[in-house]
Write a structure and sequence with these properties.
alpha/beta; UDP-n-acetylglucosamine1-carboxyvinyl-transferase, Chain; 5-stranded mixed sheet; 25 strands; 31% helix; 28% strand; globular
Length: 417
């Protein structure tokens, strides 16, 4: 099994280019079932994307990967399609459940395994199924599979989500794409990745409008071809911003839109990080005098749960006691024992992590438990004395493209064994 070895305390200096967004690409790939010919650019070459490609190929789509250009060309011209998404392809990646909405829309039926992904909470699909039922789908769960049918097609409806869910909003958008009449989705997630999906669906002819947390989808003429460039990965950008705040001399992070990550930038500024914004980049200079902060993870435009673990590492270097309240997922503090093994002083009380700082971190052998927890251990290794060995790094490969290369280019000592 592969491991990462990091020798800490090396100053980062240079430029890091941010890849396309994994969380935007996955629902857009599911939406490619709805078209006949699609070209996607700025695709991150990470494990979750290759798993989704494998799933679409199993369904019957033809996909050409041009790795040097981070481009996919996707064809769906088959009359006979496999409307099954098997357990072996959905178990490691929760986004696989998004083919449910697309298959129902185009083919009137789907059999999709209940999803897997990171072990950070229950993350049930109840809200996905609520939306699909409201649109007229007949659904049952049998032997670990969601079996859905809409023989006469889906019909527009008004759906109010009892709580905000990114995945359920995406599946509802995909299912409502070809529904007869008008669909209104209330209390939706409005993450930038959802807006990127909507941008893609509009290129396929969808008539969609967003007002606040309400999305209106009107029946309209549908096109069969689309070209789309995927947005930047704001979680990857935030991760490298925090790495630069920890050990950066001067690091420029480019190929981003600073307006989209305004909350993250403002949060780091409150802690004391020096950030200079440009049109499509930011430059960070390390400040050794960091201040404590209290943070609550929230749906966009709040502070993202996907950056909670990384921010926690930064707060081990801040003066005083900081608090992070995790309100999105119930099991998202599993990295805390590993950080404490490295010398951090973090205690958990209910849904709140209290981080005492500043503390000196020491290299140790640690184990990744999920995607974002694994990268938090990388950040801890960058600032720790001596050597850190990180096990189970397959989590990292699910969501970070060329992580070692990007850090090495900025003078980090990191290698895979």
């Amino acid at each position: 099994m592969q491991k990462l070895i990091i020798k800490g305390r090396n100053e980062l200096n240079g430029k890091i280019s941010i890849s396309g967004s994994k969380n935007a690409t996955l629902p857009i790939l599911a939406a490619c079932i709805l078209s006949s010919n699609t070209k996607l650019q700025n695709i991150p070459l990470v494990k979750d994307i290759f798993t989704m490609i494998e799933l679409l190929e199993f369904i019957g789509l033809k996909i050409k990967i041009i790795k040097k250009k981070n481009t996919l060309i996707i064809f769906n011209k088959k009359n006979k399609i496999n409307t099954l998404a098997p357990y072996k392809l959905v178990k490691t990646m929760r986004a696989g459940v998004l083919v449910l909405g697309s298959l129902l829309t185009k083919y009137g039926k789907a059999k999709v395994s209940l999803p897997g992904g990171c072990a950070i909470g229950t993350r049930p699909v109840d809200l996905h199924l609520l939306a699909l039922k409201k649109l007229g789908a007949k659904i049952k769960i049998k032997d670990g599979y969601i079996i859905a049918k809409a023989k006469k097609g889906l019909k527009g409806s008004t759906i109010k989500f009892p709580s905000i869910s990114v995945g359920a909003t995406e599946n509802a958008l995909l299912a409502a794409f070809n529904a007869k009449g008008k669909t209104i989705l209330k209390n939706c997630a409005i993450e930038p990745e959802i807006k990127d999906l909507i941008s893609f669906l509009k290129k396929l002819g969808a008539n969609i409008k967003i007002i606040g947390r309400t999305i209106y989808i009107h029946e309209s003429f549908k096109k069969l071809e689309a070209y789309h460039k995927v947005m930047f990965d704001r979680i990857e950008a935030g991760t490298y911003m925090i790495a630069s705040a920890l050990v950066g001399k001067k690091v420029t992070i480019d190929r981003i839109d600073p307006k989209i990550i305004k909350t993250e930038i403002n949060t780091l500024k409150k802690i004391g990080v020096n950030i200079k914004k440009n049109k499509s980049s930011i430059t960070i200079n390390r400040n050794k005098n960091l201040k404590q902060i209290n943070i609550l993870t929230k749906p966009y435009p709040g502070f993202p749960t996907d950056l909670q673990a990384q921010l926690m590492v930064l707060l081990t270097q801040a003066e005083g006691a900081s608090k992070i309240q995790e309100d999105i997922f119930e099991n998202r503090f599993m990295h805390v024992p590993e950080l404490n093994r490295m010398g951090a002083k973090i205690e958990i009380k209910n849904k709140i992590a209290i981080i005492h700082g500043p503390t000196k971190l020491m290299g140790a052998e640690v184990m990744a438990t999920d995607l974002r927890a694994s990268v938090s251990l990388v950040l801890a290794g960058l600032i720790a004395e001596n050597r850190t060995k990180i096990n189970r790094i397959y989590h990292l490969d699910r969501g970070y493209e060329s992580l070692e290369k990007k850090l090495k280019n900025c003078k980090a000592e990191i290698r895979r064994v």
